[in-house]
Each structure stands twice: as structure tokens, then as C-alpha cells.
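Late entry, evening session. Most of the bench is empty. Finally got around to the prediction I had been postponing all week. Sequence below, unchanged from the version circulated by S.P.
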Amino acid sequence: MRPVAEADLPVIERLRTDPGLCGPFLWAGWSDPHRFRRRFEQDGMLGEDNGTLAIASGAGLLGIVSYRRVTAASLWCWSIGISLLPEARGRGAGSRAQRLLADYLFAHTTANRIQAETEAGNLAEQRALEKAGFTREGVMRGVGFRDGRYRDEVLYSVVRSDLLGDDAP
């Protein structure tokens, strides 16, 4: 995992806007592919309330992980997401990247909770989150919209003490 480099932008733009690369659960229709370049030029894709990091293997880009600040009850937490190139899927890269991102966010922010939401039919992502140490909390009915239909999503979380033990700060 590393910060996004300018050379990554063409791959990220295709990964997030090409229905063949997005996979069935992330394709949300056509959108402006240049928004990623504008965001990169603004802050390197690393803001106070959200960010995107590259998942790399050597010099090759496997995909991206992202995080955004959300409100959970009366506190804030991070919500994370992932998008992998097809050739990186099913090889454990997603679980490793999500665990590394959780470790990174706990090490560098005061958040006590990190959550992830995935479409109920995305069983591969659910397995990846569980392998990364996340706990399934439940189903949120009709909270997602894709392909003309509202969809159920499964909520996962990990809290600081899950990864760092009971004496975590």
C-alpha cells in the first residue's frame, strides 16, 4: 500500500469507470473519469476526511483502497472501500490491503471504529473482510442503489481493541 502516484491515474480512471473492470458490484453508471485527476491535483487524494491509497505489488498497481469519515451514533469512524483489477481478485490481495488500511488508520488517527459496507450478494468481499479481521454486524435493507434497484448491504466493522488488544489506547 502506498500513496497514489500520477502514473497510477490512467489505471484508476479505467478501474472506476469501465464496467468491465469495475466488476458487477461497483459499476454505478458512467461518470466523469477526470474527477480522479482533479482530486489528485488538489491534494494527492489524501484529505482530512477521505483518502485513496494504491494497492501495489512491486511496480504494478493491483487496485485502490479508500476511506472516508462518517458519523456512527454520536462518534465518527472510517468507512473503507476497495476496488481491485480483475487479475488481482481472488488471491488474498483484498484482505491484505483492507487489513493494512485498518492498521494504518488505527496507527495514525484517533478513530476507534472502521466499517465497511458491501452488497449482500458480494460474497467474495464478505469473505475478504472476515479474513481481514472485520466482524459482520448485520444487513442494512435497501440502502444501496445499483442497476435500477435498491439493494441490501452487509455492514462489517473492526474496532481498535479487536486488532490491538484490550489495552489499546
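Two things to note before I forget:
Strands lie at 2-3, 50-57, 60-72, 75-84, 113-119, 135-146, 149-159.
The chain is about 30% helix and 35% strand.
Will write this up properly tomorrow.
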